[in-house]
Amino acid sequence: MASNHYEDILYQEQNATATITVNRPDKLNAYRTRTYDEVIDALHTAGFNKSIASIVLTGAGDRAFGVGGDTSEKKSERKGGRGVVGVSVELLQSAIREVPKPVIAKVRGYAIGGGNVIATICDLTIAARSAVFGQVGPTMGSVDPGFGTAYLARIVGEKRAREIWYLCKRYTADEACAMGLVNKVVDDELLDEEVDSWCAQLAQRSPTAIAIAKRSFNADSENIKGIGALGYQALALFYGTDESKEGVNARREKRPPRFYEVDSVEEKA
């Protein structure tokens, strides 16, 4: 897929850095089927280009890094998707990990749901102070059953990872940094400059040494890919259940999901 054929992303190479920008700000940079495939293609283009030292993954505008999958995309539009659940989620995650270059998540605004998972998987994450991190999956009948859970636990610890997924709270950039989810937080107007500085430093490092280091880091957690493969097969079945559909419907109708029958309790005087 040639870069001039991209519709959902912007791709730029400059000063030994490739920048991939998801260009769907009106959708909070949510990924549709085409978006996944274009980002994967761009990652492979940059990742195996010997003149590139690092890759920056970001979202257009200042409202969102990304909020996961585009829930407005119809199932019929996902027929071309290569992933188990209809879109190439696991293939995108693998691409981030497998390209022999550091991938930096440059986060402005919301990094929620699948966007939060992507920021987690990237080698490094640099955030603007206004960035917001968190999960939504269990509120709408979904979950990331691989790197988004097991790998997250390696980064922030079991207790915090379970809190993130079970409660679906929002965390500021400073809170995310304190738990180890983010490498550095800077004021919004300094984010581009800070990321450029990190990329300039990476361009002065041995590409072979960096590639070996990345492979070594990944080898220790590669078993999560197998866990995720099983999990996504289960998730594909789960998406067909009434429970999962209730979560999606509740989100579209902007109401609390009704996963349980809860009796109303009258307060006694």
From TrEMBL:
The lineage of its organism: Bacteria, Pseudomonadati, Pseudomonadota, Betaproteobacteria, Burkholderiales. GO terms for molecular function: 1,4-dihydroxy-2-naphthoyl-CoA synthase activity. Coiled coil: none annotated. It comes from Caballeronia calidae. Belongs to the enoyl-CoA hydratase/isomerase family. One of its GO terms (biological process) is menaquinone biosynthetic process. PANTHER family: 1,4-DIHYDROXY-2-NAPHTHOYL-COA SYNTHASE, PEROXISOMAL, NUCLEOSIDE-DIPHOSPHATE-SUGAR EPIMERASE. One of its GO terms (cellular component) is cytosol. SUPFAM superfamilies: ClpP/crotonase. Transmembrane segments: none annotated. It comes from the Bacteria. PROSITE patterns: ENOYL_COA_HYDRATASE. This is Short chain enoyl-CoA hydratase. InterPro entries: ClpP/crotonase-like_dom_sf, Enoyl-CoA_hyd/isom_CS, Enoyl-CoA_hydra/iso, Enoyl-CoA_hydra_C.
